[in-house]
Amino acid sequence: RRILTAEKSKVASPSPGLFSGRAVFQQETLSLQISRVSTADSGVYTADFEDTSGAVTALCFHVSVWGE
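The chain above was modelled as a monomer; its predicted structure follows.
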């Protein structure tokens, strides 16, 4: 599932769905903040970075949420 799409020098556009209204992308720090998290948000997240030549680098992050 795609949470959002962000491009250099453009405002990030959130995708409709589970994280709608809960995900905020910080362009300056390349960070993603998800509010009102629950254990259902635990899982593996992937960030795809595309450079100017079109090459894509994918990074995976395992996120764990404990408690409610």
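The CA atoms of residues 41 and 65 lie 7 Å apart.
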